[in-house]
# Entry
Amino acid sequence: MTWKINLSKEADRFLVKNRMGKEEIFEIVGNIIKKLQGEDINVDVKKLKGKWLGFYRCRVGGVRIIFEINFDEFSVFIEVIDFRGRVYKK
# Structure
């Protein structure tokens, strides 16, 4: 099944400003999906609590990707991509 990946305007702006390619993020999200479906892939992903309940966080070096995943609709929505110190303050 083909997964649909959408980015918020804020996440897209972060990628442009920091010269990161969407392909790199899409590859990371693909690995996250595989891990959440039970494959043994080395990805640091965690369910969030509190204000971010229902979201997941992926750690890639000093960058954090906060996203929602819908297994029924095969879709991922990336809410925020930012550096570690700022990402949770949004």
Q: What stands out?
A: The helical segments are 9-17, 22-36, 84-87.
